[in-house]
Amino acid sequence: MDTLNVAIYGASGYTGAELIRLLARHPAVRIAALSAESNAGKPMADVFPQFSTLDLPILQKLDEVDLGPIDVLFCALPHGTTQVTLKAALEAKPSLKIVDLSADFRLSDPASYATWYGHEHQATALQKEAVYGLVEIHREALKSARLVGNPGCYTTATLLPLVPIVKAGLVDLEEIVVDAKSGVTGAGRAAKVANLFGEVSEGFHAYGVGKHRHTAELDQELSLAAGTSVAPTFTPHLVPMNRGIYATIYVKGDPKAIHATLAERYGDEPFVAVLPFGEVPQSRHVRGSNHTRIGVVPDRRSGRAIVLSTLDNLVKGASGQAVQNMNVVTGLDEATGLSQLALFP
Length: 345
What we know:
Layout: E1 4-9, H1 14-23, E2 29-35, H2 44-47, E3 59-60, E4 72-75, H3 82-92, E5 97-100, H4 110-117, H5 124-129, E6 131-132, H6 135-142, E7 147-149, H7 153-167, E8 176-182, H8 197-200, E9 205-206, H9 214-226, E10 233-238, E11 245-252, H10 255-265, E12 272-274, E13 292-298, E14 304-311, H11 315-329
């Protein structure tokens, strides 16, 4: 197995750290460069002491990273900052494979991006080239991708159960309601008053109500699956836990047909498990892993179903999925380096 030289832009955030945790045990990877603007010049162990036993590169500023020997670049920078950066990276090295963990290359329509993110996209040619990195749905297109837009954590948990049943015509497209919850790490590592322990603990609340940007990803992928416009209702919530996404999805359709379709669709997938009919997944059973667990429960009203989906927002919802994407675009077995089981208790 040839060794891939990997660089991580934005290594001092939660997703950057999670990439290091996963890649450090990947048999085909050498972590060759790490960037972090405010922590440039420091060892990674100064930022995340759990890495003190690893021989990692010193953190650098972006413009100091030499992409010459790099095969795969993971970009874990905030959205809005990666477009020009990645355009320059590919101009400097066209053979580079990039997995972008920001939202900058998830939407294929420049007008949709401008609407949801408040400014014009600054690399529209790359935007059209990028492949949406939900591996279980777009595996074939990803095999030849140069630039991958790694999906959001909410959208991964929501689309994995919804895309197959929408594509099969099993649900009323006008009656899809997604009620989702996220752990606090979903908001990133930057210091924010709203994320302080005293602000988050002992309660939970909705946010981005009616306007959360992940809604655009849901619209795009569900409309693609349905062959017509789909606009689900989506409301995210912040809950006082470090990791996890839990989506409760209400649909109008036959529960047993929905379950049978999902069980068949994901029967051979390494990272998606559909539970027996009527069983409910728990977020604690995926914590720290790249797995998604899906349950289907009949509603008390005939012809309606409750679909439940959970994953770790930092792994399958971000960095684990990014490694899975890297494996696919470089021709490796897609489960390589992702065999870790959930941490419980």
